[in-house]
Specification:
- The chain is mainly α.
- The protein has 10 helices and 3 strands; from the N terminus they run αβααββααααααα.
- Strand 2 and strand 3 form a beta hairpin.
Length: 226
Amino acid sequence: MSAGTDGIGLGPAARRVLSDEVADALRDAIMTGRFESGQRLIEHELATQLAVSRGPVREALSRLSQEGLVVVDRHRGASVATLSGEEADQIYSLRTVLEELAVEWLCRLAASADFDRMEQVLSRYDDLPRPLTLQAVAALDVEFHDAIFRASHHEPLCRAWEGLRSQLYLYLAQLGAMDDDFTTGWQDRHRRLLRVLRTRKSTAAVKAIGAHTTGIYELDGRDGPG
């Protein structure tokens, strides 16, 4: 008998389920600062606000917990995650390794359209509402670095980044951006980085991304992971 998939009777895959929509709404609320660090997320209140039952809310909170945006405690319920200093050290040590590898592959495989995509993200900085907020700039920062990973054309590496990006956002919005230069100097700092990436010179690009990530990490007065 064939070991193939004939006769299994699979129906068409669902494009989206309600818990996906709820997760998107809650993620957006966290990443735009409408939910603050440590704020409790009460299922029945969220269900009422979103006009859904509690089931999709529970599923969405579980998913956001896996992303590192939410902490779910059996006794206290769910709340917006707050990063400790040790967690921030771990996030940044991993982020540095991943991004240096992404830049190596970017220098080999990136297309002109990939660099144009980064430029488009940078241009949107000018359209951010003033006064600038940490949340808005942090979200744009993550989007710019999304573009770096996409430009690597390294799918396993992109998947590894997906598992870290939400926690990186929390770091930038909560711990890593205590200096006004994070918001006011963001565009210039990233333009300098993009100029180096466009050269496709791997040694210079890896050095530049390492200096870039370390510079942001030290804005809150840290000396580095330890």
